[in-house]
Amino acid sequence: MNENSPAPVVVGVDGSDDSPSTVILAAAYAADRQSPLRIVHARAWPTYTGNPPLLTPPVAPIEDEPTARLIVDNARDLVRGVHPDVNVTGHVIDGGPAVVLIDESRHATLVVVGSHGHGGLARRALGSTAMDVAARATCPVLVVRGEVTRNGPVVVGVDGRGTSKAAIDFAFAEARARSVPLRAVHAWHHSTNLVDTAESEADGRQRARSVLDEWLSDDRGNFGDVVVETVPVHQANPARALGEESAKASLVVLGSRMRGALRSRLLGSTGYAMVHTSQCPVVIVRSAT
């Protein structure tokens, strides 16, 4: 890849029913950013669970080359029909889908994945590829979920920690690109030993607004054209608050740290819950802190 060329938007395709909508959304992001679009299909090899007999002939990948190429070519043709100005290329890469896309994230501005893949079980729960990529990619990851629209507000979760900054920056840029409002959500709750009163409710809400104002101040100055709505929510479970917001949103943006061994720890409990339950697409923005 040319070091002087803009970083691409990367989208993973597998030929499933969800692939076209995933590709179209990825193309829209590439058009917004004036970035090239790189369509990637991972051609996985079967794995042995035991010792194969000696002199066993080499095992071919699950898909043959023509089938894999057709998946990529169909996706590329779809993009050219919808966004003819986007510079789009298609690539078949041998390897597991998650491994391939995580490697692609090292040189990408955004990786886009569908939330489901082939197979009945995979379609009833979040695809393992989407989960692994969202947890381990080194660039922002868009998981395509629920209703795909670009008209609703962009929602960003603000937790008042270092993970919020990169997510807020991303969310402001997206709200501007879509010409929609930004809703910044901070969930707060009292400790269990404090009785709720009208005064404590007002104090808690004011503290939540102060957190939001502090973390939004820089981007409000840089994105003066973006309408900002601050949303302090009295809710012990941030994922529940964000899940309710996702019903009317076009995008939910969350921050995540690059640490921990388990996927739920890499994403954080809120991110882990949202990529499973959000009613609209979710972006996980990695923070190095």
UniProtKB/TrEMBL annotation:
It comes from the Bacteria. InterPro entries: Rossmann-like_a/b/a_fold, Universal_stress_UspA, UspA. Residues 9-145, 153-286 form the UspA domain. Gene3D superfamilies: HUPs. It holds the Pfam family Usp. Belongs to the universal stress protein A family. This is UspA domain protein.
